[in-house]
Design a protein that fits this description.
With 110 residues, the protein is of the alpha+beta class. Helix content is 25%, strand content 25%. It contains three helices and seven strands.
């Protein structure tokens, strides 16, 4: 019983002190104590911790992207992500990808 309570307390304490920072194409968990102003750390959030930028949008198609991929268009640049939420760098809301967006920006026939 003491072991279970200790484990629960330890896990809760770690979660309370956990932050996340965006590293190129994914979030990395860090201790909030280890942050500095340049890191732009946010409190740990399980809902967005697995968000990743899709670095090979040319691999997207209607079957694997519709309902599973979100995007942001900012300054003429389109980026694709594996989950909904806010863009980790500009804070804009990610939108669900459409067939039009896939055709125009992802499935390029160069």
């Amino acid at each position: 019983m003491v072991l279970v309570a200790g484990t629960l307390f330890f896990n809760q304490s770690n979660t309370d002190n956990a932050c996340m920072v965006w590293k190129e194409n994914h979030y990395e968990e860090i201790l909030c104590d280890e942050t500095n102003p340049q890191m732009k750390a946010i409190p740990y959030n399980e809902n967005i911790s697995q968000l990743q930028k899709i670095t090979r949008p040319d691999t997207l198609n209607f079957d694997n992207a519709i309902g599973n991929v979100w995007y942001n268009k900012s300054d003429g640049k389109v980026e694709f992500f594996t989950n909904y939420g806010l863009h980790p760098e500009n804070g804009k809301t990610l939108k669900p990808v459409s067939k039009y967006i896939l055709n125009k920006y992802a499935m390029k026939n160069d």
